[in-house]
Write a structure and sequence with these properties.
The chain is mainly α. The protein has one domain. α1 runs antiparallel to α2. The protein is rod-shaped. The two termini are 55 Å apart.
Length: 109
């Protein structure tokens, strides 16, 4: 059984295979982008929950100490410590330590 194909039929078949590979790769890229977007939105919600929980704990501790003690030093430490932590975090977040460290996939280190 011999198969006789014309050059046009071979080109059409190769083109069809190329289109199939192109569609498969674009679908994989689209799925990867959708997964990355879903992960980033979950990170934001998770971060917001942790921030709110930590804030509630700090406010509760401050309220207990301020309302139930008359020691001035304890009150000052209670009110100043969260401010120091917040200042440290903000300074770390807003300070640029390195420039040009972005790498793309396949770059050498």
């Amino acid at each position: 059984m011999a198969i006789n194909l014309t050059p046009t039929e071979i080109l059409v078949g190769a083109g069809g295979l190329l289109v199939l590979v192109w569609m498969w790769r674009s679908g994989a890229r689209r799925a990867r982008r959708a997964a990355d977007a879903a992960r980033s939105s979950v990170r934001v919600v998770s971060l917001a929950g942790r921030v709110l929980l930590t804030t509630a704990g700090m406010v509760g501790a401050q309220w207990l100490i301020v309302t139930h003690t008359s020691d001035l030093t304890l009150r000052l430490v209670t009110l100043a410590l969260p401010d120091m932590i917040a200042a440290y975090v903000l300074i770390r977040a807003l300070t640029v330590t390195e420039l040009g460290t972005t790498r793309r996939r396949g770059d050498r280190r």
